[in-house]
Every structure is written in structure tokens, then in C-alpha cells.
Amino acid sequence: MDMENLPNLSTKNTVDQPFERKTAQFLFYVMIFTITVFNIIAFFFIIYTFLAEQQRKIAARKKGSLILLYCNLDGLKEINDSRGYKAGDEALIQTANILRKTFRESDIIGRIGEDEFIILMVDTEKRGTRIITERIQKVLNEFNANVAFPPKLSLSIGFVEHDPERPLSL
């Protein structure tokens, strides 16, 4: 192949330069935004993990109780699909408010997925999970009865208890 007949890739058409510059600027801003959001999420994940692990260590040392509660907001995909993402965001905000209203200030509440929340409850025994479940349902029922937010919110809930005799990491 003759090297003289290849197109010169080092020269650019001046018409494309502004477009390429704006594209590069846009990609740069997207990259900065993505890095910033990732760092914020990573920061809160690290803080939450640190707090949870510290509480687990305290419970193990004191031979105390510790319960991890898992909540899933039922039907978030359907809310997003039928009413839009703004309605889905509102459902998540209201779920977080319901959980804050239900649990103690000393309990650690975090969102771990799209529609998943976890709550770490210190000094709560396994037999207290029935009371907690009833309290969540009561606050949820009050919300659903008093707010014209269709559809009604519903949570699926699961528990796991920390056994001080057989400690595990979080």
C-alpha cells in the first residue's frame, strides 16, 4: 500500500472543531458529574457500613441484641411505568419518611437498592419484631388512609437477628 495515498488524519476540518470541542466539553461534564455522584454514594455507603459494623461490635462485646430489617417497596416498577419516575421518586421519599417515623433515632436506616431499605436496630430482641412489624403496618395504613397518593404503598419485610454467641460480620 502506498503511504502517500492515505488520508492525513492529523488535519481536521475547521467546521468540525466547534462541534468536537462542545462534544468533548459535554463528555467532560458528564464524567465530572458521574465521578461526583459516585463519590457521594461511596461516601455514604462507607459511613453506613462503618456505623453498622461498629454497632455489631458493640452488640457482640455486650452480648446484646441487634436486628437487621430488610424492607422492599412493593410495586415501584409499576409506579414508574404507569405514573412516571417523579411518582416513583415520591413513593421512595414517602417510604423513607414512613421508616423515619417508625424507628428510633438510634436505629440506622439506609437505602441499599432501587426499592430496598435496611434498618439496623440495636438493643431489639427477636420477639420485638412482631411489634415492629405492627408499628410499620400502622404507620403505613395511616399514610395510605390520609394521602391521596395512588397507588397505596406496601412493604415486604424480612428480619435477621445477630447472635452474640455466633457473631458474623455485616
Describe this structure in words.
By secondary structure, this protein is of the alpha+beta class. The protein has a domain at 64-161: Reverse transcriptase/Diguanylate cyclase domain (Alpha-Beta Plaits, 2-Layer Sandwich), CATH 3.30.70. The chain is 54% helix and 15% strand. The protein has a four-stranded antiparallel beta sheet, with helices on both faces. Helix 2 (76-83) packs antiparallel against helix 3 (85-102) and helix 3 packs across helix 4. The chain is flat. The termini are far apart. The mean pLDDT is 77.
Strand proportion: 15-25%
Q: What are the low-pLDDT stretches, counting only 5+ consecutive residues below 50?
A: none
* SSE order: HEHHEEHE
Strand order of the largest sheet: 2-3-1-4
Q: Using DSSP, what is the number of strands?
A: 4
List the topology elements.
Elements: H1 16-62, E1 66-73, H2 76-83, H3 85-102, E2 108-111, E3 116-122, H4 129-146, E4 155-161
Antiparallel strand pairs: 1-3, 1-4, 2-3
Give a short summary of the structure:
With 170 residues, this protein is an alpha+beta fold.
Top keywords for this entry?
flat; 4 strands; 4-stranded antiparallel β-sheet; 54% helix; Alpha-Beta Plaits; alpha+beta; 170 residues
